[in-house]
Predict the structure.
Amino acid sequence: MQFNFLISIQMLGYFQHLKLALHFQSLLFWLGLMRDLMSKPKTLSSGDGSAVNNTDSSSGQVDNEKKKILSFVNDDVCSAILDISFQRMLKKEKVFPGTALTLGSLELWSDDFEGKGDFGQYRSRLLELVKFVSSNKPLTAGVKVSERVIAIIKSLLSSPTPAQDLAVMESMQSALENVVSAVFDGPNEVGGATSEVHVALCRIFEGLLQQLLSLKWTEPPLVEALGNYLIALGPFLKHFPDAVGSVINKLFELLTSLPFVVKDPATSRARHARLQICASFIRMAKAADKSVLPHMKMEINLSRRWLICNCRPSPGGTEQKQWNLLMHMLPEGIADTMAYLQREGCLHRSEHNLLGEAFLVMASAAGIQQQQEVLAWLLEPLSQQWTQLEWQNNYLSDPLGLVCLCSDTSFMWSLFHTVTFFEKALKRSGTRKGSMNLQNNSAESSNFLHPMASHLLWMLPPLLKLLRAIHSIWSPSIHQMLPAEVKAAMTMSDVEWSSLLGGGNPKPLKGALTFTDGSQFETSREAYGEPNESDIRNWLKGVRDSG
């Protein structure tokens, strides 16, 4: 493999070129080169079946050649590659005229650039290159991505229309996620509390985190972007658990800053942003792993004291109300905060389900006993409504009772959320692979019961009745008596038919179904109305698939 410093400089020049076509060809070169240089040494199988490193002379010669080439890919080269990659994450069509963060004369990807695949493939290649470079030069990558994000934040803070300039920040979220993942959670992660590089990286990302936590954005697009940035730091939180509590507080702060009641369809972005923030708890629980466990039920007195000293608003107004809400939230852990928000009527059912799913992810890292406690806390309130005979007699004893159920909007979606959350609980519960206690003897293992075993007893009988009622409306004798909107809602796509009949791809095509999950019916009591054809179709499909 012939390579020298001059070649690297020449190919770097093409990578930095203003013209997209030249840059793209150089991207393929750098990606192939870094993929080869960063690959692990191959292993050979010894006579006893164990794996051993391939240490023969040819392999050692190749490794030495790789190290020599990597020496040409120095800090300056990696820094330049990252700079250009970060700028080119943005598609031309997303840039508003006169955007605050100028990109100069750089020719960005656009739909007019034909013959090179779509933008998604191009960006995935950029991100792969970013990940390789970050693994090779973690400190350089940490510095560059932090500087870039902070520059974008400062630009948005000085912009009169920050929501319009948000595309630049959104384009950097995936880059940040890949850098953090490569540095803290990748195959070449920098480990060891005493490592100088590790300590320096923690300081860099701690500074970036403080910048993000200090932002007081309340517009839904900005709130959504900020939540995504906080979760992009998930692998860092696993190595820096002291910051987890602050991130949890910030996510709840973002959630309560968004309006709970959304009556105007034009402001539905707030509804979507609330759901995204709640879903962020799931992603954080996965990425931060056991670092989240202490905050399931933990007093956060330092955060409370900081709020009192620095954030107390003037009496009256919405700011005072929000501050009071946060003060009630902070003394307890995540579970108590969820319960408080629900008691105060500040949490939609779909949002509670997402937070509950995050709790199940946390509990799975804590063991079977913790899972059982969490499941009891989450599911027992649902069982009180689910097991009542009144609704089963009213809606499930007669085939046409399902039509009456569809006209009772609030109860219809309540059942939907019960069924879908129970499915999530089944998927999220149990033991992780390799997490069974090796000290358990065979007798104890044979007596092991799944954490959901006791809950199946009350869930299954009404669920089977509900599914039978749903399937019965497809029979010709009942179908002819159904209202027009129910008949129209029963229409299935080819993908759905194929899935039910056991053929083809069971997953629906992307964008084939707009799944509303009933959240639009939870905005206020006055907003409850007759469900339309799309709502009934989504409800039928959701219950049928989850059941």
Summary: The two ends are 57 Å apart (CA to CA).
